[in-house]
Amino acid sequence: MSEADERAIVRSEIRWAVVAIAAVSVIMLAVIFAAIAMHINPPSNVERINPQDLHLSAEFTEANLGTKVEANGQITARIVATQFAFVPRCVVLPADRPVTLRFSSPDVIHGLLVSGTNVNTMVVPGYVSQVHTVLRKTGDLLMPCHEYCGLGHSEMSGTIRVVPSAQFRPGPDGRVACAAK
Amino acid sequence: MHEDDHDGLTPAQIAEAMKATPRGALALAGITTGLLMAAWLAMYFLVFLPRGSVG
Amino acid sequence: MPQNRRLILAHLWVAFSVFVLAAALGVWQMWVRSPLAAPQDTPARYYQSVTGHGVSMAYVLTTFFIMGFGYFTAETALKTPLPSARWAWAGFWTALAGVAMTVAAILSGQASVLYTFYPPMTATPWFYVGLVLVVVGSWIWVAVMLVAMARFKRANPGAPVPLAMYATVANAIMWLWTTAGVSAEILFQILPAVFGWTQTIDVGLSRTLFSWTLHAIVYFWLFPAYIAFYTMAPRAAGGRLYSDTMGRLSFVLFLLYSLPVGMHHLFMDPEHSTGFKFIQMSLTALVSIPTLLTVFTISASMELAGRLRGGKGLFGWIKALPWERPMVLATGLAFFMLWFGGGGGLINMSYGMNAMVHNTAWVTAHFHLIFGGTVVIMYFAIAYEIWPSLTGRAPLSVATQRLQLWLWAIGMMVMTLPWHYLGLQGQWRRVASFNYADPRIGPWGPLVIVSLAGGVLLLVSAVMFVMNLLPRRAQVRLPEQGYSFALAVHPPQRVPAALNGFTVWNVLVAILMLVAYGFPILQFFIGNSPQAVIHPLTGG
Amino acid sequence: MTEQPTGGRERDRWGFAAAMVVAGVLLFSVVMGLIVLPVLQAPNAGIDPWTAICRAVGLKAGSPAQPQPPVSATAAPVSQVRWTPATLKILAAADPRPGAALAQAVCSACHGEAGLSPSTDFPHLSGQSGAAIYKQLSDFRSGARFNAQMTPVAKKLTDEQLAQIAAYYGSFSRRAAALGPRYGIGDAAISRLANRGDPARALPPCESCHARGVGGPPEAPVLSGQQREYLYRQLRAFAGGQRGNDVYRRMRDVSSHLSDDEMHRLAEFYQGLS
């Protein structure tokens, strides 16, 4: 075997490495593009809240949960993920408007996704999980708990009811709740 | 190198086979990696972006 | 011929017996999730089973196989007995005692916390103590591997450490780094809680420490498959390894980049910021480089083999390969499944894009293809390959070996393709029962049954695998034989010192870990990091 | 084979090259992730670049690309009980002996000797989880739950005394057998509801919270062997809104999805379960 052969091997490997790095760079560029042009990040709120006091906290007290249009017009849904239900079980949100979902857990780790959308987050006790999105499809979307939270995990499921923007009518206190079906 | 490690291939045989190598490997790896990138881009443009922004 | 054959076989048999039982549990779990009525389908049983399946596959099968295979590699590649068979046996019995404790804990129903633990849910202390013993046993293995390589280098100054051994030691060193995260979680957070010394756990910190382990551990499992690609498959195909240097470089890159990336499992977590998630994403992207390099180097090695066997043209060499040999067939099937599994992985790691698939059946499909597909099929091929030199007997006929490998690959594809699709539809994970009466979920039913059928094929294949290896009465004894790894096209006479040891790489790993995990861990020690009260799931 | 290993120079060269590549990759990731992306995303959030960088590092809450919603809320909680390490320590350290004396003096007239109630008007307390008793007594005391007999009794007790009573009743390992007539045995549909739940109504299994050592909410009481009349009354009270001290509506939600017949049969099932 000659040195020349060995050099040819190294050359071919380097050539291939360039192809591989180029392929990975395409993915990186697409991800960076989505982050800059469409503000797509993974939900990363880093907001602490004491899980032992969650039901006594102002924000995640039972009576303050659900959808609320804030004074500045921002639409926020506050949802507690607890063993073994989302509270409230059903949340109304308008289509085609920016909305913010805020979740927290008083007990163990939960998680959720809203089917057919990119809404997906873990709910870790001790933190407020926050997802900003614009919902495009109307209808009752599934919102299951997707992280093992105990023996009742399989039945832990909620609903995101997306209504056309015109049908989204907050009450005088800015709150909107699911009508019984 | 231990005697019993020999695989019976002679330098001449290997030099002959190395003449065309790695053109086929480059083609095979290139095609499969190309398909992989195509699949990734398809998921990105056809599934991920239509599902809307998050963050 | 390896000296400590009983030692190696003991490890492999623990791995394979647990594997078959775990495969049976997996099939039952899919039956429970399907629209078909399954026996014993309570959630308590389901999560007990998921815990058993995960622990057996991820901790027992892998650790014992890797230890046994490491001892085999050390003895055959270095051509010397192990530095200390006594220590190796001590490691075996320690780990086996750990397995016994853990299995007993799971069987008693007091440890249904799945193999990733989920604090603040907690199991009986036996569960964690057992797992700690498994890790301690594996650390003894690490020490034996390090000493074996050091002795070889001392006895053969300047000689390159054989690639198979270099890779095994790379894995051993990576495993030491890897286990630091989960060990810290268990020792400093979980055990104090389950022994009642503390009532709370910092869940953000525990998830971060587990993520430290969670990705690199997959590469720990994957290493033997790559060792087989580089040092066994080329010879089995009748050729040589295209480049020894690229092999070393790939293993070094795995050591470097499989560690500072675990936070990509936490992309959807609220306790970490976008910045550090981005850093770990871009480091994750680099993990695909050694795999893509391997795809090329192994393709080139196979091309060389095909051409030596008379293959012509751009693709004619593929047809000329000896596909009837299990190692060659398994390599081909493993790369086929790696395309799907690795492709899924590229999507999972893509930062915000992870939201599309996180905790759906898509992810389950991804890691079953990588682990069950690429990794385990190579474990099969390795076992078939080294069995004669271990037992002096050949496994059952080559035809049954091929059938078993095909069944495994087909079963894996039939099982995971529906999972990919269902995951995109939003089918979520870790669920004992779906409400198929819901019109949004009902259409999933038939596809779940298809994947159940794939699972049945996998179980059949798993049973066949063990049957192939079992000793039989009317069996021809083979002459004593050693095992020879593949030679490189240019067998290295000397290699750069950096590619013959690990000092440089350990320093770089430390730097990478400091940047990637320094602040993300430190933040839990700043201010009042929230604590969650433990929820003991320890049975009645 | 006998050639000397490539010496320090070559190791330096490899080490240097590798360090440069690693440093380059790290520099790119850090600059892009911690500086470039947040600065470019900040305008969408309406924040200054420095705040965006702080959010990207994790020093401030919120996404660098999105505005934080305001929080303006005050609402009354349904129960004041908090499962903190302090509470759990009081419970764990509570001495059952003074608890036994207190129980004898205050509780046994209605709840019976050793917590086995002779009347269907009052629940059995024997073998109940200590956390459950503590939670209910605390709620009676704070007014989160009201009962004409219990509320005045609870108001007279200190936190430590609550814990001692809870420890006393919790110290009976199992509820005594032969509590009276058994019902509900062999009711397959109800057994299924209790053990498997009903995904169609998003009903988790009763057993995922109400058995020992299932990792559910700490305050969930043990139901097996309880008086069926008591259980039925509580389910009705939760469903009808007369009782609402269940944190995060857990029981109000569950009971509102049960039919009256199911409540009866569940109560019988649990009385029969030992």
Give the low-confidence spans of chain B: none
The share of residues in helices of chain B is 55-70%
The 3D shape of chain D can be described as elongated
CATH superfamily of the largest domain in chain D: Cytochrome c-like domain
User: What would the CATH topology of the largest domain in chain D be?
Assistant: Cytochrome Bc1 Complex, Chain D, domain 2
Q: Please identify, by name, the CATH architecture of the largest domain in chain D.
A: Orthogonal Bundle
**Which pair of chains forms the biggest interface, and how many residues does each contribute?**
A-C, 69 and 74 residues
List the helices and strands and how they pair.
The complex is a heterotetramer of chains A (181), B (55), C (540) and D (274).
Chain A: H1 3-37, E1 47-48, E2 66-69, E3 75-82, E4 85-87, E5 90-94, E6 98-104, E7 110-113, E8 120-123, E9 127-134, E10 139-144, E11 157-163, E12 175-176
Parallel strand pairs in A: 3-6, 5-11
Antiparallel strand pairs in A: 1-9, 2-3, 2-12, 3-4, 6-9, 7-8, 10-11
Chain B: H1 11-18, H2 23-48
Chain C: H1 5-33, H2 43-78, H3 85-107, E1 121-122, H4 125-155, H5 163-194, E2 200-201, H6 203-231, H7 233-236, H8 244-257, H9 274-308, H10 316-320, H11 326-348, H12 361-391, H13 398-425, H14 444-469, H15 503-522, E3 532-533, E4 535-536
Parallel strand pairs in C: 1-4
Antiparallel strand pairs in C: 2-3
Helix pairs in contact in C: 1-2, 1-3, 1-14, 2-3, 2-4, 2-5, 3-4, 4-5, 5-6, 5-8, 6-8, 6-12, 8-9, 8-15, 11-12, 11-13, 12-13, 13-14
What does the model show?
The complex is a heterotetramer of chains A (181), B (55), C (540) and D (274). Chain A is an alpha+beta fold. Chain A has one helix and twelve strands; from the N terminus they run H-E-E-E-E-E-E-E-E-E-E-E-E. Chain A has two domains: 1-42; 47-176, Immunoglobulin-like (Sandwich), CATH 2.60.40. Helix content of chain A is 19%, strand content 33%. Chain A is elongated, with a radius of gyration of 23 Å. Chain C has one domain: Cytochrome c oxidase-like, subunit I domain (Cytochrome C Oxidase, Chain A, Up-down Bundle). In chain C, strands 1-4 form a two-stranded parallel ribbon. In chain C, strands 2-3 form a two-stranded antiparallel sheet. The model of chain C has no long low-confidence stretch (mean pLDDT 96). With 274 residues, chain D is mainly α. Chain D has three domains: 31-61, no CATH class; 81-173, Cytochrome c-like domain (Cytochrome Bc1 Complex, Chain D, domain 2, Orthogonal Bundle), CATH 1.10.760.10; 179-274, Cytochrome Bc1 Complex, Chain D, domain 2, CATH 1.10.760. The relative contact order of chain D is 0.10. The chains are: A alpha+beta (181), B mainly alpha (55), C mainly alpha (540), D mainly alpha (274). Chains in contact: A-B, A-C, A-D, B-C, C-D. The interface between A and C is large, with 69 and 74 residues.
